[in-house]
Design goal:
alpha+beta, Immunoglobulin-like, five-stranded antiparallel sheet, four-stranded antiparallel sheet, 2 helices, 12 strands, about 25% helix, rod-shaped, Late embryogenesis abundant protein LEA-2 subgroup domain-containing protein, transmembrane, transmembrane helix, membrane
Length: about 220
Amino acid sequence: MSTPACKDGPILDHPNGRRAKSKRGHTDDFIEPFSPEERVAICTCAFGITFVICLCLLIVLCVGAAGGTANVSQRPGDLFVRLVGTRGLLDPRGSPPTSPAFRLALDFDRTPPTYRSCSGGGNSWLRISYHDMILAWAQVPHFCVYGNRGVGSVGTLEVEAKADASVLREEVRNLLWSEIQVVGKVEFDVDGEVAGLGYLRCKFFIMEDKAADVPKSLCILRQ
């Protein structure tokens, strides 16, 4: 009877039939790199780091949401309008008429320290009228208001309202001259729609005495 090529039984790694041992004196089984105490310490440390990261993210989200809510609920402060210069209104009589133009300054006062918002741009507009007669109009550019910093980094937003390709009628010029000579000043109305602020109404004056101190006019804002 022939002898089988393979014989059932344990395969021994040592010529003497004994299982080989590692240099540590143990059999070649899977060696756990960390002790149970070390595993507990590593898991505790990982959990602590994860908890701190999640807590920081939650704080950042809450602060951002609170800041956005504060900006929505707060008003930008008081808005004033003042006249910087004009053209084509009180030209000397007999001079050729020119297109009327107004240069206005918008000032924000008592803005809350935490307030920050951008307005204007798009279809934002202002118009200037005299006794319900529209004299000029302007597009309001995009601008930002920061607490205690005014408008942008300048503190004042200037807008030029004008009526290109049109001039004041002679009767309107005469009415302006008569009013400023009799009353000593001429009153103009400003109204418009500014994105982010709402609808506003203001007044400003042109004084006969150019050296007179003209107070800023408070604007009424309506959302």
